[in-house]
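Bug report

Summary: structure tokens for Nucleoside triphosphate pyrophosphohydrolase differ between web form and batch submission.
Environment: batch mode, default settings.
Steps: 1) Submit the sequence below via batch. 2) Compare with the web form result.

Sequence submitted:
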Amino acid sequence: MENTSHTLKDVQKRVDQYISQFKEGYFSPLALMARLSEETGELAREINHYHGEKPKKAEEKENTVEEEVGDMLFVLACLANSLDFDLSDSFEKSMQKFETRDKNRWTRKEEENNHGN
């Protein structure tokens, strides 16, 4: 697999180019939410197989956590495109929230090192 990097805008554009080929277009937001829930379950299954207590059955297909996260990103791009918003803007708003509301929630590494002296 080729090693490429994509901005979120690139992801949304590529997904839109793919979906635009089909008469059906994007699923409804509710259907996309169901798809996202389905993909979340598949990710949970993979995490449980590789990092939990439930090993894969011998006949089960090898999936990876990375593939499932990619599937989730595809569905998130579909949702953003269908509702006409920019994932980069969503991410920025989310990070601003975490960087302000949660900035003192956990012990910073430099604080931990100072306490150890």
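Above is the batch result. After comparison, the two runs are identical; trailing whitespace caused the diff. The chain has one domain: 8-101. The chain has a mean pLDDT of 90.
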